[in-house]
Amino acid sequence: PQKNNSEGKSMNWVEFWREYRLGEQLRMLKQNAPGDSKVQELGQKLLEKVPQFFAGLGPPEAIKPSLLHGDLWSGNVSALRDGTPVIIDPACYYGHYEADHGINAMFGGCFAFHNTGYETYFPKAP
Questions:
Q1: 71 is a catalytic site residue
Q2: Using CB atoms within 10 A as the burial measure, which of 92, 94, 100, 114 is most buried?
Q3: Model-level pTM?
């Protein structure tokens, strides 16, 4: 199960991703493989650099968070018997509107974002 800030901490989308996506994975790894100190060491260095990775998008507060699927790739896109498209196996959270694009691209992409109308409402970030 993924944690989604049930404590209601005030944070922007970069802080959320750092704490509840990457940070949580590192905490679970530490619990399941406590002897792997090298991964924890590298993970902590990565956590410190997360804000730098997103700095080119502008101030995180300037991005209005969007409700995301959280695990959108071709394996989670299907159809009902009548052909109605559906997406399954969500890991929903609020974040940068292009985050689902990253997951999609990482796993080879699918048709979900090849829609010319999408960029009318959500222009590509720098």
A1: yes
A2: 100
A3: 0.76
